[in-house]
UniProtKB/TrEMBL annotation:
Protein name, entry field: tRNA(Ile)-lysidine synthase
Family: Belongs to the tRNA(Ile)-lysidine synthase family.
Signal peptide (from-to): none
Organism: Streptomyces pharetrae CZA14
InterPro entries linked to this entry: Rossmann-like_a/b/a_fold, TilS/TtcA_N, tRNA_Ile_lys_synt, tRNA_Ile_lys_synt_N, tRNA_Ile_lys_synt_subst-bd
Amino acid sequence: MGPHPAVAAIRLAVRRVLHDILNDHGLPQQAEAALPPGPPPRPGGETPLSPPLVLVACSGGADSMALASALAFEAPKLGVRAGGVTVDHGLQPGSDLRAAEVCLRLRELGLDPVESTAVTVGREGGPEAAARDARYAALDTAAERHGAAAVLLGHTRDDQAETVLLGLARGSGIRSLSGMAAVSGAGGRYRRPFLELDRQTARKACMVQSLPVWDDPHNADPAYTRSRLRHEGLPALEKALGKGVVEALARTAQLSRDDADALDAWAGQAEATVRDAAGLLECAKLYALPPAVRRRILRRAAIEAGAPAGSLFARHIEEVDRLITGWRGQGAINLPGKVVAQRQGGRLVIRQG
């Protein structure tokens, strides 16, 4: 008798991602068990490849515990070492003890290396964004220190639907509606195997495997926007529109991502055609481009000049765009990161102010 359907689903999702990681890094796939770490040199001095390491980011919640269990099961079959990292945000009393408990559970699954890393959460962008920035910085550091080929994240289809709605509420454009990518980060470091699985599948997989999980009280705290959306907004939508809202939003994310990727590629090709010999953007040539392409070029130019991508919103780019499409002699536009955009002699100059 095979595993429970929920367990089979999470294992299949992780197996596919591990295959992708090995293929992307040009690494061989082991048919049965993993090679022992640190193999001795072959005769003649040639050293065989060490098994690649894949880390799972685990909070102790159902999604990430299900992911950790599936990674622990599948990795040895493909010759992959599996480790885990938990991030202690320090936002709740006893968070250090909770992190230590998560590490113990990961080791019991057979993961190695396993570590807890404490971070200091700032205030920039709000509590949720600040915690996210601190978490990813810690995961980047851990991955680089261990030489990990990838870090797995437990975001589910439900998380994707929430992300799409949050982007829609911000009015941030099609890239924001595309939600979370299955592969992201420098060199494709971050992988999200569960984006096509719902949250309930992960929780069920933990239950049938008797895996203890921790429910973060912040996930039910109405002070957080995502929590209100999860417990009030999405249920209200499903009540008004019927079941299938989460699936439809996740599908919208993928379609939006495809469109955004195509427009980004178009903008990348068009950018060279709208710069003069000195590399300055020519307003007349920018004006001739479709707005979606032109605004991507403007956003890229602002980021290259030093504007932080996370602080550069659609309203900023719209103001810069008016220097192209609604020129009435207006002055310079101040952008985040002390970047200034202004029109000079038919050219658009974006630089540090």
